[in-house]
Write a structure and sequence with these properties.
With 209 residues, this protein is an all-alpha fold. It is 84% helix and 0% strand. Helix 2 runs parallel beside helix 4.
Length: 209
C-alpha cells in the first residue's frame, strides 16, 4: 500500500541502465578480441577499465539502497540484480585476464562463439530492463528472458564441443589444455550469470502480476 502512495525513486533503473551499457561494451570488446583484434593490450585494458567502472556503479547502487526509504523494486531484488549483473563483467574480465596472463597467441574459435552469445545475452538484459522501467509485469520481459535462456543453453553446448576439440588438438600439451579449459569455463560462467539475471527479472515480473 505504501509503495502505491509514496513517490518511488527511479534512480535504481538508472544504475541498472548504466551498468548494462558498460557490460555490453565489455562483451563487445571481448568479441573484438576473439576476432584477433589488432591491438590486444588495448582491448584487455578497455575491459579492465569497464570492469572498474561497473564496480563503482554497483557500489553506488548498494549505497543508495541503504539510504533510500521507498524503492521501485523489493530491496533484496535490487541487491541481487546489481550483484549478478556485476558478476558478468567480473567473469569477462577474469577470462580476458587469463588470456593475457598465459600469453596465448592464437585465439580459438569457441571464444568468439561465447563472446557472441554474451553480447546477445547482455543486449537482451538491456531490453528487459527498459521494459521493466515502463511496466514491471510486462510480458515482453518474459520474451527477453527466454532469449537469454536460449543463449545459456547454446553456451553449454559450445563448452562441451570446445573441450572435446581441445583434448584432441592439445593431447600432447596438458598445460595448454588446463589454460584453455579455465578460460572456456570462465566465459561459460558469465552466460550462467546472465541466466541468473533473467531469473531475477522473471521473479520480479511474477511477483508484480
Amino acid at each position: 500500500m505504501f509503495k502505491r502512495i509514496l513517490p518511488q525513486s527511479t534512480c535504481f533503473y538508472d544504475f541498472f541502465d548504466d551498468h548494462i551499457e558498460h557490460t555490453i561494451l565489455a562483451c563487445e570488446a571481448l568479441l573484438e578480441l576473439s576476432q584477433q583484434g589488432s591491438d590486444r593490450p588495448v582491448l584487455i585494458r578497455r575491459i579492465k577499465d569497464l570492469e572498474h567502472a561497473t564496480d563503482d556503479i554497483t557500489h553506488n547502487c548498494i549505497e543508495a539502497l541503504h539510504k533510500t526509504f521507498i524503492t521501485p523494486l523489493d530491496r533484496s531484488d535490487i541487491h541481487r540484480l546489481i550483484k549478478r549483473m556485476d558478476d558478468i563483467v567480473d567473469l569477462v574480465d577474469s577470462g580476458v585476464g587469463r588470456i593475457g596472463l598465459y600469453e596465448l597467441v592464437e585465439m580459438r574459435s569457441e571464444v568468439e562463439e561465447m563472446a557472441t552469445l554474451l553480447v546477445r545475452s547482455t543486449r537482451e538484459i538491456r531490453a528487459a530492463l527498459k521494459e521493466m522501467r515502463v511496466a514491471v509485469n510486462s510480458p515482453k520481459i518474459q520474451e527477453r528472458c527466454i532469449a537469454i535462456y536460449q543463449c545459456e543453453n547454446e553456451a553449454d553446448t559450445i563448452l562441451r564441443n570446445a573441450l572435446i576439440r581441445l583434448f584432441k588438438d592439445a593431447k600432447d600439451d596438458p598445460v595448454l589444455i588446463i589454460k584453455w579449459k579455465e578460460i572456456y569455463e570462465t566465459f561459460e560462467s558469465a552466460t550462467d550469470r546472465c541466466e541468473d539475471v533473467a531469473n531475477i527479472l522473471q521473479g520480479v515480473m511474477i511477483e508484480a502480476s
